[in-house]
Structures are given as C-alpha cells and as structure tokens.
Write a structure and sequence with these properties.
single chain, mainly beta, Nucleoside Triphosphate Pyrophosphohydrolase, 7-stranded mixed sheet, two-stranded antiparallel sheet, 11 strands, globular
Length: 169
Amino acid sequence: MLRPVRGLGCLVLEPRPLSVVLCAVLADEHILMIERAHDPYRGYLALPGGKLDFGESISQAARREIREETGLETEFLSVAGVATETIQSDSLEKHFVLFVVLLSTQEQVLTASSEGPVSWVSLTSLSSEKLIETDRDLIERFVLPRKLIDVPHFSVLRKGDDFSINTID
C-alpha cells in the first residue's frame, strides 16, 4: 500500500506495510493449505488468507478469506502469533504484517478457488511439501505446538467524537 507524503514541494508515494491474515485451520491431523496460482510463490503451498479490508477486524478478515478461498464456514479461535515479512527483489518490494490465526470448522468439503487449489495436507508430511518458507516457520512456531495462547487483541472504532472498544469474538 502506498501513502502520499509531502516532500520537496510535491507529493511522494511512500510504501506502507500491508496487514494480512494467515489462517491455520486444523482437522484430523491435517491443515488446510492453498497452492498459490499467482506470483510470488506460484506453485508453492501456503496458509490461506489475505489482506484485511478497511474497517474489518482480524477475526472477520480470517473468516471471510477462508469462506472466499475454500467455501468453508469457520469459527475464530485465536490470534496465534504476529510477524513481519519484507520481500525485496529486482521486480518486487513488499512489506507485510502477518497475523497468524487459528480457526476451526465442522466442514471438510472444499470448493475451488481462483487463488489456487485448496486441500487438506497431513501435518506429518509438511516437512516434505513445497511450502513457502515463511509459512513453514510460522506453522512450526505458532500452529504445531497446539498451545491455544490467544494474543490479546481488540477492535477500536472511532466515528467523530464517539469511539468504542470491542473484544474480538
């Protein structure tokens, strides 16, 4: 995301981090994964997820992204961890704030996604899968320990002089 900044008598676009949810949905010793259809990381397995929309909470974004990418209805459990990722190359420069979230579902049947094929991957086979290294590390640090430690988080809504603080469901 670019933010206009005043500088030297003109507006300059300054790169800003993108807020992203990465969703870990576990079922019967399997984790929900998506094979990326687009660059970067085309052909790699990844945690499903995406950017937060304006005004959206972390839990709302996570449930929406899973519904859009897989057709599954989920229950938000917790924010398992937060990390940043910066990608710099000749053709790409991105900075992300990654919210790793845990979700549960009673459903198993997946629908096709324009983002790439989705599937349930055995947790025991993850080490041999072609997986985005950042996602592999986040899964090992935040998901596999299976300790449901919720990172405290809340949502603040400010409209004019009115504001509310809400706990996240």
